[in-house]
Amino acid sequence: MDELLERLRSGLPDEALISDPDVARSYDRDMAGFCEAGTPAAVVLPRTVDQVRHVMRTATALRVPVVPQGARTGLSGAANASDGCIVLSLTAMNRILEIDPVDRIAVVEPGVVNADLSRAAQQYGLTYPPDPSSWETCTIGGNIGTASGGLCCVKYGVTAEYVLGLTVVLADGRLLRTGRRTAKGVAGYDLTRLFVGSEGSLGIIVEAVLALKPKPPAPLVLAAEFPSAASACAAVCAVMEQGHTPSLLEIMDRTTLRAVNRLGSMGLPESTQALLLCAFDTPDPSADLAAVAALCEAAGATEVVPADTPAESELLLQARRMSLPALEALAPATMIDDVCVPRSRLGDMLDGTAAIAERHGLTIGVCAHAGDGNTHPVVCFDHRDADESRRARASFDEIMALGLELGGTITGEHGVGVLKKEWLATELGPVALEFQRGIRETFDPLGILNPGKLF
Amino acid sequence: MDELLERLRSGLPDEALISDPDVARSYDRDMAGFCEAGTPAAVVLPRTVDQVRHVMRTATALRVPVVPQGARTGLSGAANASDGCIVLSLTAMNRILEIDPVDRIAVVEPGVVNADLSRAAQQYGLTYPPDPSSWETCTIGGNIGTASGGLCCVKYGVTAEYVLGLTVVLADGRLLRTGRRTAKGVAGYDLTRLFVGSEGSLGIIVEAVLALKPKPPAPLVLAAEFPSAASACAAVCAVMEQGHTPSLLEIMDRTTLRAVNRLGSMGLPESTQALLLCAFDTPDPSADLAAVAALCEAAGATEVVPADTPAESELLLQARRMSLPALEALAPATMIDDVCVPRSRLGDMLDGTAAIAERHGLTIGVCAHAGDGNTHPVVCFDHRDADESRRARASFDEIMALGLELGGTITGEHGVGVLKKEWLATELGPVALEFQRGIRETFDPLGILNPGKLF
């Protein structure tokens, strides 16, 4: 242990190394529940690529596991420490190195906060679309590592689609450059994409070239109340089948609505079983909203409220933004799931989740990126109650089983981490898992990069 | 050899196996020039996944190389046979298995022709955007294998962005399923993306889940004549910097224009040094074209012609569609390059290519997917003239060197094949190449999948 700290210290400035056990322990986990975390031997906060290389050379020489971290807003335990590891926090490498409005790219260090990049891009009339809920705190490196999504994915896609090239420090400290800064390029296997969602298991991302998009007009939002989750999901299917391209298409179920009502007195009628929110950032959003309003009414909506101004739209979105805090206020602990199904099966997913909640006598509120079929069932429970914790975990697992049964995936945007390792193996099957392992061994033959995560 | 044919025959219907040497030889190459091709031992045209598995099991048992082929419209020799190989043509597996307008996906076999899928999707109000020039003949499997692009990429992106999941027969005949049929999903490393552009070196794609988009309105096109390539490129930069999203943004250089004039009497003034074509499929394309017209005039355009109708637009696009045949009519042989640079460097790329042509005393016409910075310099030469062939190859290489110098890539959308192997190594460098090789060995430890291609 002393040797580890000594070696680390030899290539790092004092402020980049935290060896005090109490402070180091505060870096032990991300925001996932149900997940174990160990005690790191050291926390390093490098500011340069060379410092990261020094850390990785040291880790390789001493065979010490390295756990890379961003803002630790992750929801699957992918950034949780293991005992005796080096926690490698990239948060201090937070410079935006370049924004080019002609090439529509940004070059950034991994610790740049998502919202900071968005704001910087806006000065050039551009935007960085991926918008995880934690966008005010989460980092680009963490977004890439977990392949994160967000509210606007239904129109603008996920993080993966915005990563053009990467600079990576490999397990042994060597430098790997992947991808490009051009709009297109097919030179060899797509190593860039391989790193997106790799949860720190293939290398340490120290720089990224990101695609930017022209900033769209401010969106207008519509809210529609439905007498059942099924009818709201039918409206979602109709909107997509009719060829609309909303920039946001969300559903909140009854449990979520009641929780939001309780927290914020939104005044939603208690008889409402599901709320659909739909936004357009098109040239004529009112016309698009009118078309969607008609589809909602045809699907059985009891009330349809289209906003006339961006300010009204913001108010309607408040309910969605309050969903997670409102559900968290219902119980001492919550666990958020992340099952994505074909959108045609969304109704079955919501009804099935409600049945699981009832069977286990638990409160499970669902908000969903409905346009993508990506549901976030939030299991509310008392972690001090062993039986309730057991039932919470069982329902969490049953939700994933249901998602797979409906042709979906166990994770639409939160990743695998330690939380869903067993389920990843189930979803992939033995052949795919064998090749996942093979790729990992190619990049990390000593097994020091975030071991115990993914598989 | 007899054993190979006998074993193949044991698991294939008669019509799926071609052993006649003359017929087999007709499958020896794709449409790339400069590329060697060997003589296949057999050509198989399976119709089922099980037949493909039988072929791969046989190839593994006998250690015989397998060269997968689609429509052989490729431009890098990736589908060229090697001596004694099995050519595995997927063209007979050409069924569209499913189109789902709610989930906006298609499930297809690899031999489906790109245009057939597009037409089938249109019946649901949908479109499959990737549109390589060969779209009337090329296959989806070939598109995925080479990660092909097209004219609409500037707005709609490349093939890679539309491949959600794959079924793959591995080198040893096992079946691998990758990806998903949901809009989002991050379960493990993105093996799907790894196969896109892998040129048959990792496995045989036997089924693909593809994303579809709502069919956009018919585009309107504008043509603008410029007194120099540099001024046309400046207009491209201005269009992109101002936040426009054209569905097509092409440049044809002077050499291409003259060739088109000669072939089709387009009546373009011979003083025109570059023609820019810009299309919008937005709700109000006339307004967008008017904005672009102003930017073109500010950049020095001598003539700007916006179309008022889709029919007029089609006429303007004719010149672009005729570019390649018109250049091919200039010389006994042509070789098409595929360098992609940051669009801010497009002017330097075009001027540099003209200088290379002049230095070598050759005709090189350039058409470019200008919005993406993806240039296609077409080197015209007489392949019966040894010195001219040498100069043609030298200029071809110098164009790639120039592309790399400008921060670009040696291939924007055509792939590597055998044509650009050495240049791939140059672009990637030794570290990236080591990991490319490592991945290949993971999937193909015996080295029987399209050996000699890529690297």
Could you describe the 3D structure shown?
The structure is a homodimer of 455-residue chains. By secondary structure, the first copy, chain A, is an alpha+beta fold. Among the domains of chain A are: 96-214, Uridine Diphospho-n-acetylenolpyruvylglucosamine Reductase, domain 3 (2-Layer Sandwich), CATH 3.30.465; 220-405, 3-Layer(aba) Sandwich (Vanillyl-alcohol Oxidase, Chain A, domain 3), CATH 3.40.462.40. Helix content of chain A is 37%, strand content 20%. Chain A has 15 helices and 19 strands. In chain A, the strands form 4 sheets. In chain A, strands 12, 13, 14, 15, 16, 17, 18 and 19 form an 8-stranded antiparallel β-sheet that branches. Chain A has a 5-stranded antiparallel β-sheet with strand order 5-6-10-8-9. A 4-stranded mixed β-sheet of chain A has the order 1-2-4-3. In chain A, a hairpin with a 4-residue loop joins strand 18 (363-369) and strand 19. At the A-B interface, strand 9, helix 7, helix 8 and helix 15 of A face strand 9, helix 7, helix 8 and helix 15 of B.
Overall mean pLDDT of chain A: 96
Which CATH first-tier class of the domain at 220-405 in chain A would you pick? Alpha Beta
Q: What would CATH call the architecture of the domain at 220-405 in chain A?
A: 3-Layer(aba) Sandwich
Helix segment count of chain A? 15
Distance between the termini of chain A: 27 Å
Strand content of chain A: 15-25%
Low-confidence stretches of chain A: none
Biggest β-sheet of chain A: count, sense, barrel? 8 strands, antiparallel
Quaternary structure: homodimer
Task: Quote the CATH topology of the domain at 220-405 in chain A.
Answer: Vanillyl-alcohol Oxidase, Chain A, domain 3
Q: What is the number of strand segments of chain A?
A: 19
CATH H-level homologous superfamily name of the domain at 220-405 in chain A: FAD-linked oxidase, cap domain/gating helix
- Radius of gyration from the alpha-carbon trace of chain A, in angstroms: 22 Å
Q: Tell me which protein chains meet in the greatest interface and how many residues each side has.
A: A-B, 89 and 89 residues
